[in-house]
TrEMBL record:
Keywords annotated in UniProt: ATP-binding, DNA-binding, Helicase, Hydrolase, Isomerase, Nucleotide-binding
Record-listed E.C. numbers: 5.6.2.4
GO molecular function: helicase activity
Pfam families hit by this protein: Helicase_C
The family this protein is said to belong to: Belongs to the helicase family. RecQ subfamily.
Protein name as it appears in the record: DNA 3'-5' helicase
Classification of source organism: Bacteria, Bacillati, Actinomycetota, Actinomycetes, Pseudonocardiales
PROSITE patterns attached to this UniProt entry: HELICASE_CTER
Amino acid sequence: MLALTATASGPVRADVVEHLDLRDAAVIVAGFDRPNLHLAARFCTDDDERRRAVTEWVAERAGPGLLYVATRKDTERYAAGLTSRGLAAGAFHAGMKAADRRRVQDGFMRGELDVVAATSAFGMGIDKPDVRFVAHAATPGSLDAYYQEIGRAGRDGEPAEVMLFHRPEDQGLQRFLVTRKLDRECVGEVAAAVRRRRLGIAITELARQLDRSRRKVW
């Protein structure tokens, strides 16, 4: 048996071996040095400064490129800002309809978009060789996530830029996203409602029936 993963820390590698019940497994870890990637970081004092700095930096780059952001709203904000600067920009996040996500992803792969402003939802199956930059408008949730996302740059071996725009407050957001508690009561209500509707139910209708916000039931 051969088990492969793009990026995995020591504990994750141990989990792979344990869950697959591998015996005497030969664990091979390749190096992550990518000489063609130029990594840099820029400290920003507040969000307004960062938004301006990110938009200007991306607008000055020759694409195609990826801009990873922390929230779904930020994907729309940055895409709109970059479009106003004359770039062909798209937004991508998990809350979009599947058809819209597919349209943005296919457009990027075909070279129709200069840049995609996306959450971490954008990435699986993305193997575009000529990505010339990957920028982060906020600190990612983990070093593994950061390495995996910047690894989409320069897969053709040509030079590519990687830039992180960060603030200390970014860590607080990531801690909130990781540690927020699951509303078990809401999960039970959603599960029961979905079971009753064998043919499925729209998120908006589900939220109305349960008298909860659309975000809560999503």
